[in-house]
Amino acid sequence: MTQFQFIKDYKGIEQYRLSFNELAHRTFGIDFESWYQRGCWNDRYINYSFLHEHKVIANVSVNLMDIILDRQVYSAVQIGTVMTDPAYRNQGLSRRLMEIVIEKYRTSCNFMYLFANKSVLNFYSKFGFTQALEPTYSFDLKPVVTNIPIIRKLNIHSQEDWNLLLKLHSLRTPISSQCGVMNAEGIFTWYCLNVFSDDIYVLEDLSTVVIYQQEGHLLHLYDIVSAKEVRLSELVKLLPIQGMKFPKIAQA
Question: Which of 53, 118, 131, 222 makes an SS bond possible with 211, Cβ 3.0 to 4.6 Å?
């Protein structure tokens, strides 16, 4: 019988960290090593894995964060990077790792959640997860003539710009008291490095960072980082939206 070694929270062990990163790249096409080298992989992102012959062959990760819902703060665990090397599937490794994670945080957090596609809904329902649809909000905006403050794209490869991004994030106010996130610096920087590296802008006069993408006449607004409370309807008027007569502003 094949023997597997359980290991967790091993980011400081290069051999295992690089093996995890290689599996993540093969499975999802994503990278964690540059995030680690930037010093952004903190103690709130934790791997739970199985090893075989000193290689990571299955994993479940947790992101620890605080979530604001209706003005109340809750401790939450986001589960992610659930993966098994194809050569080791159908042996119950992901199931066992999920059981370990759920048992670990069952009494120390208010709730757990994850993002899943339709192909794996039955798998997660076995652990008590229930399906919740993710809402999307949108509104139409007519362009107006306004004194647009200086806005520029941040270059995350510039140490000065990267430090500015980290500083503003450390001072940020939750985007909403109805549904907001706190203490999630790690996952924020991961997305900045791996998903939105070309979509981060700073309004320097307002000390505000905006992450958005434009798709034709549609503007996807993903995050606003500011030390002060921001009125969305006013902020979007300050963005240099190109070629849009009647843009639609959407927030997911």
Answer: 222
Distance separating alpha carbons of residues 58 and 37, to the nearest angstrom: 23
What six digits make up the tokens of 143? Answer: 């362009």
Ranges of H-type helices in the chain: 14-28, 33-37, 93-105, 121-125, 159-170, 185-194, 232-235
User: Which band of pLDDT confidence, cut at 50, 70 and 90, is reported for residue 143?
Assistant: low
Q: Tell the burial category of 156 from Cβ atoms under 10 Å away from its Cβ (0-12, 13-18, 19+).
A: middle
Q: Are 45 and 62 in contact (CB under 8 A)?
A: yes
Task: Please give the backbone phi and psi of residue 152, each rounded to the nearest 5 degrees, phi first.
Answer: -145, 155
What span, in angstroms and rounded, lies between the C-alpha atoms of 20 and 110? 28
How far is CA 197 from its chain centroid?
A: 13
Is the predicted pLDDT of residue 247 greater than 70, yes or no?
no
9-37 average pLDDT score: 97
Of 45, 41, 42, 49, the residue nearest 7 (C-alpha) = 49
Give pTM, 2 decimals: 0.87
For residues 39 and 33, give the distance between their C-alpha atoms in angstroms, rounded to a whole number: 10
CA nearest neighbour of 209 among 162, 143, 248, 157: 162
Tokens 């009125």 belong to residue: 231
The pair of structure tokens assigned to 86 is 């194809």
The full length of the chain comes to: 252
